[in-house]
């Protein structure tokens, strides 16, 4: 049963991700990306890495994708946005993500009700993640944080340029 | 834990959630009226309690109108996402020993994840309505819940540090000796503010500010889809109040003359009333004030709380 759940989630992730690539429309691609991230999170959960699974949901599906959608919404209603927006809103393209999300929801329900158990692998809890991040992978964490700092400074610089009159 | 997740628990808690959310609407209207020296709905049934029933029937039989200019599927899906996230969250709350739907050892994280997914409900509603006020409301709702979620999570991490677990049941168990509202006073206040903002309740109801945005993200909604937004919001209030009770007020613990479940529900009722009182008592800030307050005041305070708790735990 668990192996079935695993393959189903992985299948959803693969299909959703390939649909992200093939969509010409940014918003629909984004919705599929959210489904794909949820599916990946579910795979993590089945493998016992619940912390990574929930970070996937909280950080990627819940925060980063909201920002993406936010930006797309802001751009969608520009001066010449009306026609583009109408082009973006083709309802039949939404059945896909809704169906794939439904599959994931069903799986979640099965696991939730205890009709099936996650794989009996060793669970990676939050403490172990922290220890390995600040232990063997310390350099990688520092490098990533420096990269993020550079991004932050860059973004700040860009908004400053826009705020200055005449620039 | 035995008895968890039985059919009675699932049906009872989810049904209870929806019924209480619907009743809350009546309670809110009555209490608001009393605080403003009016009578409020008092005609239908004893004390007007059947007003909810009448409203619900009206919403059920209203024409299912979907604006022809909207993105139909997303338009229908948006209220469902919000309500589903809130109800799923309710299933993770430990009501009393042996009462609750699910017992996960990462239930707090899971709740934060569901809270972050529920942002999609107003965002997609604003997007799919394809009209100006809902769009503005959706953007406001997204930016607001998204920022205040950060502070909510950071404030809750203080409790997590003290107990060393994400399991809400263990968090409640460990408050047998003393509730976390004492050592985590600052965290409690931050969490309370963030929880009000996260449910878009007054005074932080800027996504639905009537004077500016008509009804915000649900302007185009009518009938039972509007009802789902409405009830979903109240389920969100119940969920966040239950979370506050669980994290800071010792959950089901209390003197033994009442059963644990009664204590939990009593504390919960107190917070629900507080939500309503806040609405009567406080004016609405401006949107930029709201965002500035969040990032300039709440974030540093939440980080301070986190550092102080960490220092306390280490030394």
Q: Tally the beta strands of chain B.
A: 0
Q: What's the pLDDT, averaged over the residues of chain A?
A: 78
CATH superfamily of the largest domain in chain A, by name, is NADH-ubiquinone/plastoquinone oxidoreductase chain 6, subunit NuoJ
Order of helices and strands of chain A: HHHHHHH
Radius of gyration of chain B: 20 Å
Portion of residues in beta strands of chain B equals: under 5%
The end-to-end span of chain B amounts to: 34 Å
Report the principal-axis shape of chain B.
globular
- Examine the secondary-structure arrangement and name the CATH architecture of the largest domain in chain A: Up-down Bundle
Strand content of chain A: under 5%
Largest interface: A-B, 28 and 37 residues
| Sequence stretches where pLDDT stays below 50 over 5 or more residues of chain A | none
* CATH third-tier fold name of the largest domain in chain A: Four Helix Bundle (Hemerythrin (Met), subunit A)
Please tell me the total number of domains of chain A: 2
């Amino acid at each position: 049963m668990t192996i079935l759940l695993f393959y189903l989630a992985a299948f959803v992730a693969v299909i959703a991700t390939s649909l992200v690539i093939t969509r010409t429309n940014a918003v629909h691609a984004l919705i599929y990306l959210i489904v794909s991230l949820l599916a990946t999170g579910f795979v993590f959960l089945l493998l016992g890495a619940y912390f990574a699974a929930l970070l996937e949901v909280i950080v990627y599906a819940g925060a980063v994708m909201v920002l993406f959608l936010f930006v797309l919404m802001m751009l969608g209603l520009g001066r010449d946005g009306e026609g583009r927006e109408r082009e973006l809103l083709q309802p039949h393209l939404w059945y896909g993500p809704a169906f794939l999300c439904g599959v994931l929801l069903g799986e979640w329900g099965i696991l939730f009700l205890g009709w099936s158990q996650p794989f009996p692998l060793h669970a990676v809890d939050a403490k172990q993640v922290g220890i390995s991040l600040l232990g063997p992978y310390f350099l990688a964490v520092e490098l990533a944080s420096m990269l993020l700092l550079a991004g932050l400074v860059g973004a700040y610089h860009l908004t400053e340029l826009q705020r200055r009159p005449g620039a | 834990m035995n008895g968890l997740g039985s059919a009675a628990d699932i049906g009872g808690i989810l049904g209870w959630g929806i019924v209480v959310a619907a009743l809350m609407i009546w309670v809110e209207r009555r209490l608001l009226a009393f605080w403003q020296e009016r009578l409020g709905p008092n005609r239908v049934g004893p004390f007007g309690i059947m007003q909810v029933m009448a409203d619900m029937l009206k919403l059920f039989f209203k024409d299912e109108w979907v604006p022809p200019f909207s993105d139909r599927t997303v338009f229908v899906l948006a209220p469902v996402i919000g309500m589903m996230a809130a109800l799923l969250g309710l299933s993770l709350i430990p009501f009393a020993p042996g009462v609750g739907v699910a017992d996960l050892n990462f239930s707090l994280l899971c709740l934060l994840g569901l809270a972050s997914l529920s942002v999609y409900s107003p965002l997609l509603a604003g997007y799919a309505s394809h009209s100006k006020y809902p769009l503005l409301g959706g953007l406001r709702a997204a930016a607001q819940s998204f920022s205040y979620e950060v502070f909510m999570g950071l404030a809750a991490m203080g409790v997590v540090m003290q107990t060393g677990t994400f399991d809400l049941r263990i968090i409640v168990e460990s408050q047998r000796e003393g509730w976390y509202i004492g050592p985590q006073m600052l965290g409690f206040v931050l969490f309370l503010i963030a929880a009000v903002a996260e449910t878009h309740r007054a005074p932080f109801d800027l996504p639905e500010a009537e004077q500016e945005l008509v009804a915000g993200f649900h302007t185009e909604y009518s009938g039972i889809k509007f009802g789902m937004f409405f009830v979903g919001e109240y389920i969100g209030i119940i969920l966040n109040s239950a979370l506050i009770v669980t994290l800071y007020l010792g959950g089901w613990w209390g003197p033994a003359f009442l059963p644990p479940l009664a204590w939990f529900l009593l504390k919960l009722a107190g917070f629900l009333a507080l939500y309503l009182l806040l609405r009567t008592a406080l004016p609405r800030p401006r949107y930029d004030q709201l965002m500035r307050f969040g990032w300039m005041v709440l974030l540093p305070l939440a980080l301070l709380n986190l550092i102080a708790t960490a220092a306390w735990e280490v030394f």
